[in-house]
Amino acid sequence: MATGVLAVACLACYPSPAAGALGPSQSRFRVPATARQLIVVSSPTYDQADYLATFRSFQRVNASSPWRAVFRAWQAETGSGHIVDVRREGDHATPTGVFGFGLTMYGTEPNPGGLHEAYHQLVCGDWWDEDPYSNQYNRFVHVPCGSSPRFAAWSEPLWTETKGYPYLAVIDYNDDPTIAGPNAPGSGIFLHAWMGAPTEGCIALPVPDLLKVLRWLEPGDKPIIEIGTDAEVGHVPPPPA
Length: 241
Description:
The chain is mostly beta strands.
């Protein structure tokens, strides 16, 4: 378990009945018993007037112990398409639900140190395939520098995104299994650096806060991120003073 946690507030209201006892919406927001690190990103409504949400972080010892706040509450940027339950490729919305994190972090800057996951510094030829008709859809792909892959028109040349991607964590959205094709729900949802504007569906924090979170995430603690409205994600305790 990561150290340095500020045990200052509890998050005790996440329900824990059997999945069959939950309604469809509640089931989507159920926090796994295995999770010991939790990020909650919430907005008052689905069609909030702006693109800003509240970002909170919590940790617990085990499934029967209370959640305790780690960092103070921050503002986070979300997608220009607001937050949605049903996302589609290209709608620039942030998906709601509960998701894990990928096991590799990326960034255009050198490894900042203090991470508990593998880190890959982005170089020319590093892409995120966002072509829903590609067999590598929603995956990191490296091609020879200077070449243009067939999926390029839909996709992100990651090494060129120096403002948003100095450091990033991959949110495991549309993964295991990945749904592709005409009804693909989207790809490339990251936790990345502040843009000063809406994202294309990702969650963004100022770099100092982002690095605190990336260094805190510990794969052994099964970290998850929960995204939804304030009502959907449960009663979040007040942030520490």
